[in-house]
Fold this sequence. Notes:
The structure holds two protein chains of two kinds.
Chain A: E1 4-7, E2 10-14, H1 21-35, E3 38-44, H2 50-63, E4 66-73, H3 76-85, E5 90-94, E6 103-110, H4 118-130, E7 144-146, H5 150-161, H6 164-170, E8 173-177, H7 186-193, E9 197-201, H8 221-230, E10 234-238, E11 245-248, H9 258-271, E12 275-279, H10 285-292, E13 296-300, H11 304-314, E14 318-320, E15 326-327, H12 337-351, H13 355-361, E16 366-373, H14 379-392, E17 397-398, E18 403-407, E19 410-416, E20 422-429, H15 432-446
Parallel strand pairs in A: 3-4, 3-5, 4-7, 8-9, 8-10, 12-13, 12-14
Antiparallel strand pairs in A: 1-2, 2-6, 5-6, 10-11, 14-15, 16-20, 17-18, 18-19, 19-20
Chain B: E1 12-16, E2 24-28, H1 40-46, H2 51-68, E3 75-77, H3 80-93, E4 99-102, E5 105-109, H4 116-130, E6 134-139, H5 145-158, E7 162-168, H6 171-180, E8 185-189, E9 198-204, H7 213-225, E10 240-241, H8 245-257, E11 268-272, H9 281-289, E12 292-296, H10 316-324, E13 329-333, E14 340-343, H11 353-366, E15 371-374, H12 379-387, E16 392-395, H13 399-409, E17 413-416, E18 420-422, H14 432-446, H15 450-454, E19 461-468, H16 471-484, E20 490-491, E21 496-500, E22 503-509, E23 515-522, H17 525-544
Parallel strand pairs in B: 6-7, 6-8, 7-10, 11-12, 11-13, 15-16, 15-17
Antiparallel strand pairs in B: 1-2, 1-3, 4-5, 5-9, 8-9, 13-14, 17-18, 19-23, 20-21, 21-22, 22-23
Helix pairs in contact in B: 1-2, 4-5, 4-7, 8-9, 11-12, 11-14, 16-17
Amino acid sequence: xxxxxxxxxxxxxxxxxxxxxxxxxxxxxxxxxxxxxxxxxxxxxxxxxxxxxxxxxxxxxxxxxxxxxxxxxxxxxxxxxxxxxxxxxxxxxxxxxxxxxxxxxxxxxxxxxxxxxxxxxxxxxxxxxxxxxxxxxxxxxxxxxxxxxxxxxxxxxxxxxxxxxxxxxxxxxxxxxxxxxxxxxxxxxxxxxxxxxxxxxxxxxxxxxxxxxxxxxxxxxxxxxxxxxxxxxxxxxxxxxxxxxxxxxxxxxxxxxxxxxxxxxxxxxxxxxxxxxxxxxxxxxxxxxxxxxxxxxxxxxxxxxxxxxxxxxxxxxxxxxxxxxxxxxxxxxxxxxxxxxxxxxxxxxxxxxxxxxxxxxxxxxxxxxxxxxxxxxxxxxxxxxxxxxxxxxxxxxxxxxxxxxxxxxxxxxxxxxxxxxxxxxxxxxxxxxxxxxxxxxxxxxxxxxxxx
Amino acid sequence: xxxxxxxxxxxxxxxxxxxxxxxxxxxxxxxxxxxxxxxxxxxxxxxxxxxxxxxxxxxxxxxxxxxxxxxxxxxxxxxxxxxxxxxxxxxxxxxxxxxxxxxxxxxxxxxxxxxxxxxxxxxxxxxxxxxxxxxxxxxxxxxxxxxxxxxxxxxxxxxxxxxxxxxxxxxxxxxxxxxxxxxxxxxxxxxxxxxxxxxxxxxxxxxxxxxxxxxxxxxxxxxxxxxxxxxxxxxxxxxxxxxxxxxxxxxxxxxxxxxxxxxxxxxxxxxxxxxxxxxxxxxxxxxxxxxxxxxxxxxxxxxxxxxxxxxxxxxxxxxxxxxxxxxxxxxxxxxxxxxxxxxxxxxxxxxxxxxxxxxxxxxxxxxxxxxxxxxxxxxxxxxxxxxxxxxxxxxxxxxxxxxxxxxxxxxxxxxxxxxxxxxxxxxxxxxxxxxxxxxxxxxxxxxxxxxxxxxxxxxxxxxxxxxxxxxxxxxxxxxxxxxxxxxxxxxxxxxxxxxxxxxxxxxxxxxxxxxxxxxxxxxxxxxxxxxxxxxxxxxxxxxxx
Lengths: 452, 545
């Protein structure tokens, strides 16, 4: 299996197999053609393949007549902020986010700093597939400008979005694991601005990822040890490009990534009631918390672009996903782990409670996630099979993104991954045994086509 | 009806009277001070806005520029007959592509066929061919250089190479650095003398020589097969930026040749770098040698102040500057600084053929030994080699053919008649910097002027011309010439070189452009003119039939 995923979240694949320099050049030419030229920002995370992909991207953009500003190693949210204040037509973030280090990807940012939505992404794909790209002559080729400071500007904007003084007064001790990723400079810098004592690990962008760049409990053992040894008030784990946030409590307990948004929702709604936007496969804990604080929950398809658009539509006070991505609208309408950390530290400072105490208060459900690898060519027939099975059982289902089924014991969500050749199954119920039986239920109906 | 509009948009022709029945017409352009200004768009729209056609016009411009200065023909307003003729010629040219993939590398027009995807694939093919290892890359100052460089970097990194970028520099610097870093190879990003809209990749092997034709074919096979080495993302490296490559080049030259000996008066040099890759390093080298430098055209911004080839007719500004500053010598480099032309203290461009002759005069006087040049080199070099009793070998055209033969012969000096001087103690590469150092040493050590030196050996009348010729007709033309001149001794290793009783001529297809090149030499101007005229009559008859 040679995975290459070309979809609405961009183009993503394994470097050395399917993600070739030609693919990166072609998509950059297509993006430049789609934007009709103009200024385009380029940033990357710290993967070893980053310089190769960056060179391919620049070649494609320059050939199509774009003015390229190279932000170097840069968190994706910093790039998204820079797109608006540098007046760029768009940006390309070279990062495979939470994927392992052999992956890389291009994510396309439009002129307002948000990702292309599904319609725009499809237009871009049409341009790519048509293969007719803008080509400019020798006298219209622009040069590359190196701009190294999107991060200082990001910190400046973060300071205006939170009650910095009250956080400073608490003099919190914070452990962070930057996964040697793109936030290795931003996060320690931001926490120092907040008056925190910072215990940083894996903050060397020149080193390889110390573990999978996905802030889930199984990657937070090292951070948990640092929190305990350093007696920190909280620990934050980041993915490779600064979108997702994982939390370790002051007791050293790594939390499920689902709890990042749950905690953020609790802290945000307690001070400001309103709408919270999340996707269909995120824990229903969010609804339970919203009930407590008179909030409203809006569910979207999976994908940041959908969250951003629904947040605009509903004038939401918070957005996010069960993967650990949180959007704080005061800063920008896209996931930003630095903003998420700011929101949580602000909450710790203003409530005066410990992280573990705040988590303890949250309503709890049991969620189980399971991934079934499937050959890329059969992903959709497996899903179709599942849908036929539940139709035969006359169950209520929703096709907003993949297939969501509501059962008396809880809910089941089955969908094809946007980024890998996997079927993702998520179930949630009141307790463990009930959740386990939901997972079995789903597996039975996905049935014989799975390669397991 | 010439198109109107544009401030100096005149469609002009040089009608050259070679002979009445073969009057040839070309697009040209006129302006003040012989610096011809041309509104290409006006012509392009007139010719139907075909990009290939447009590009052909650019080639025509080059040709008219290279022939105008030295010939008697004056540009004048066109008449209808002449215009029709020119349009016919450009119609033929519609079939000629803007991309040339050959054993000399890949060369094309930016914004048309030289796309980043193509460049990336070529870099991958080269990375696959030389195997994962160190590759040195550098570029000339063309505006498309950065785009091409990024595409090349992506391809090389993807195939697992370690990339050393030495930035903007002369091609011989890249060749020197390949050996210095014991690299597996190098890529020079330059279309040397082609106009500004072109760019190209030239491939250098581990020995610092360009890939020879066998190696180039092997690499082209890999390119066409499309199966390239791809390393895993985790094994990729970042580009290493290395500064000071040109300083190392200067040091190497000074170590080998030393500074100029003390003379009564410091030598004064005017240097015209054509805003090319030699713009920064050239003045630095001359100062380090101990000469006083007056630099012109040393802004490496990708804009060509004159046609890039250092042909006599392109060096008007330099000749004027030499006179104005009362300099001892003027030097002209091309865009990638491998070729050199010399202007005498009288302000006369002596012809790029004599650069190698002067260099040989200096070297053979000190260290006699074998000399290697190509088939189209002036007979003056034969005379110089004969004077010192040194053997002279003539090879096929192309730098790598000369350098390989030099290694075989253990030559002490070599080069090409186009101004390329190769001095093996420094580098097996055509190197304008080395050429300047040798000529200055010759001046300082003999105490003579360029003019005096020129009078010390026999000189001949030499004419070089280009003729547009569709690719498929090149071999027809060559076959015809072999038949027509069968009674004379000839050398057919590269095109057709015919030794006539009163001189010689060489006709060959270019590796890089859809043209044939005609070179002829004889003792007197009239003889060479006669040779060229009879060859032209036959060639044009063949193309038009």
